[in-house]
């Protein structure tokens, strides 16, 4: 048995499909490509295919990851070419490699995600003013939001402090009409915050006027923290 870890994109119209539909799409592509997948045991066998973290519908990405277990060895470039030929536009494998079959599950290793968040400004704002806003925002000890949970059809709302989940927020680019922020945020089982929740808190606290209908979010990369450094699931340093 072998295990391949692949990095893929989710862009264009594909950003609007759900995670469940993505899983089905990948399974079909692997079958069409003739990959000899390993299946689980039991009454309802399914391919041993796992993903890092689910991406919100409407969010594009160039840094999504999956692991697939296969029976027979295949050259990495051939694997990539075959799968990409079977995938629709907007989903594309851009990098992959063999990993230890006993490696920890992707979902259990992810600590952070990096994003570009595009905001349409209702009024022009100077760069030094935005920098001051961000410095104040990230200096806060608490940034509280209300989060709804739904367990066993019992919807509840609780207040949480998301400040500990925000690693960094900085200016990526700025024009009179548009501000693009680069964010590094906690992701995974140890903690998680979505970029739109950070944006909402930022504009409310700092009084920045934006068009909420024009927010666009793009994920750049996923990271685990190893020896104090952020490392991608394929071992690249940030």
Q: Notable features of this structure?
A:
single chain; nine-stranded mixed sheet; 11 strands; elongated; two-stranded antiparallel ribbon; 238 residues; 23% helix; 5 helices; alpha+beta
Q: If you had to describe this structure to a student in words, what would you say it looks like?
A:
It is elongated, with a radius of gyration of 20 Å. The chain contains five helices and eleven strands; from the N terminus they run E-H-E-E-H-E-H-E-H-E-E-E-E-H-E-E. Strand 8 (166-174) and strand 9 (178-186) form a beta hairpin. The strands form two sheets. Strands 1, 2, 3, 4, 5, 8, 9, 10 and 11 form a nine-stranded mixed beta sheet that branches. It has 238 residues and is α+β, with helices and mostly antiparallel strands. Helix 1 crosses helix 2 (76-86).
In short:
Helices cover 23% and strands 37% of the residues. With 238 residues, the protein is an alpha+beta fold.
Helices and strands, with pairings:
Elements: E1 2-10, H1 19-32, E2 49-51, E3 60-70, H2 76-86, E4 91-99, H3 106-109, E5 112-120, H4 127-139, E6 144-151, E7 154-161, E8 166-174, E9 178-186, H5 195-206, E10 216-226, E11 229-231
Parallel strand pairs: 3-10
Antiparallel strand pairs: 1-3, 1-4, 2-3, 5-9, 5-10, 6-7, 8-9, 10-11
Helix pairs in contact: 1-2
